[in-house]
Amino acid sequence: MAENKRDYYEVLGVDKSASADEIKRAYRKKAMQYHPDRNPGDKEAEEKFKEVGEAYEVLSDQDKRARYDQFGFQGVDPNFGAGGFGGAGGFGGSGFEGFSGFGDLGDIFGEFFGGGTGRRASTANMPRRGENVMTRLELTFEEAAFGCEKEVSAQRIENCAACNGTGSADGVLETCANCRGTGQVRTTQNFMGMSMQSTTACPVCGGRGKTFKSPCATCRGRGKVRRTKKILVHIPAGVDEGQSVRVRGEGCVGANGGPSGDLLVQVEIRKHPIFTREDEDVLCEVPITFTQAALGAQIQVPTLDGPETFDLPEGTQTGREFVIPGKGIPEIGNARRRGNHRFTVVVETPTRLNREQKELLRKLEESLDGRSSPKRKKFLGLFD
After folding, report:
1. What is the Cα–Cα distance from 101 to 71, expressed in whole angstroms?
2. Are 255 and 130 in contact (CB under 8 A)?
3. Which whole-number Å values give the CA distances from 236 to 119, 150, 331, in the listed order?
4. Strands 244-247 and 297-301, how do they pair?
5. Nearest 5°: CA angle at 223, between 219 and 228?
6. Cut 0.70: pTM above it
7. Which residues are paired to 158 by β-bridges?
8. What sign does the dihedral 315-320-325-326 (CA atoms) show?
9. CA dist., res. 37 & res. 52, Å (int)
């Protein structure tokens, strides 16, 4: 229920005036914080991860965000504004598709104050686009970086194959006798002593203008059935956590000959043991020895393309970042342009030294002067 939900802006921790980039950054931070891989067995974190994904799915879509800002949770409820098949026992209608401002409110006032055109009634038998459907897909870090093809399963509404979407057992439709095929009826209501007329969808045919004698046994007269279909999806290189890949025409079937909706595949990326991502850059930590840091060395740096030889300069300090250009994530839509590979070196302190090794380190320490460790000398000078 909407009353139990937190405001989507509050969920992501952003202001209502936040830009698309700010929303994207906030989502990444929250998704990483509550990702199931980082919180194994934590049901609360799992629910928050889903909550964050739901908030981002709405606020990252310009149209959905506008509806949410104007109408709240009701504005992004798939059942909001849906019409039905009425007497034919049909499914709910097209949800947001075709929604325009205050048109529905105009119908309500029109029923009371007369002269209403009955927007739903007048459009009930017009072609309407089908609903979009959404599913989630988990990818490896490499699959998201370089793209892939994946098969997903999605539940959607399709025309009943048994009756070819008519709802009739024999496929025969007749003109509705109640509305004479118009799909509309005019009713009269008394309001404060005045007689008001309004036009509404025909209750017999549900606004379709057609009826049938025997309902189809498969779909029970609805003309529509819910099916699970497997769909091959092309994942573009560079897709990021929380982004959706749209597959045109693979959503729910349209009404009255309208086009089908789309399939939206929301991407989740499995945690990588070494790499993390920042926009199109790949980040990682590379452990080095004290000797490599002091004297410099050729080291092997792991990248998405495999190990890369890198010349480490002498005197490298722990925490220093280096960049290998063009070895990061490809840009979506332009795979020839890639981000950078950024790695930070971490000097590992040796452990379990034997007596000889310890003695060598003591001699090294005694031989070093202030010029070898200027930062340490400056720090200790504060206490003199």
Report:
1. 10
2. yes
3. 41, 11, 9
4. unpaired
5. 65
6. no
7. 225
8. positive
9. 15
What burial letters (b/e) apply to 132-165, b meaning 16+ CB within 10 Å? bbebebebebebbbbbbebebebebbbbbeebeb
Q: What is the Cα–Cα distance from 83 to 258, expressed in whole angstroms?
A: 14
Q: Which tokens sit at 123?
A: 């459009």
Q: Which domains does the chain have, with CATH numbers?
A: 1-77 (1.10.287.110), 78-269 (2.60.260.20), 276-381 (2.60.260.20)
Dihedral pair phi/psi, residue 375, rounded to 5°: -65, -40
Question: Which amino acid belongs to residue 253?
Answer: V
Give the Å distances, CA to CA, from 100 to 61, 71, 194, 296, 370. 17, 12, 30, 66, 74
Please answer whether residues 82 and 90 qualify as being in contact, where contact means their C-beta atoms are separated by less than 8 angstroms.
no
CB 337 within 8 A of CB 287: no
Contact 209, 246 (CB under 8 A): no
Tokens standing for 170? 């024999």
pLDDT digits (tens), the chain, 384 positions? 455 678 899 899 998 888 888 899 899 889 888 888 788 888 888 888 889 999 998 999 888 888 888 777 777 776 544 333 333 333 333 333 333 333 333 333 333 333 344 444 445 567 888 899 999 999 999 999 999 999 999 999 999 998 888 888 888 888 888 888 888 888 776 655 566 777 787 888 877 788 888 889 888 888 889 999 999 999 999 999 888 899 999 999 988 788 999 999 999 999 999 999 999 999 999 999 999 999 999 999 999 999 999 999 999 999 999 999 999 999 988 878 999 999 999 999 988 899 999 999 899 888 877 666 666 666 666 665
Q: Which residue has the tokens 């939900």?
A: 5
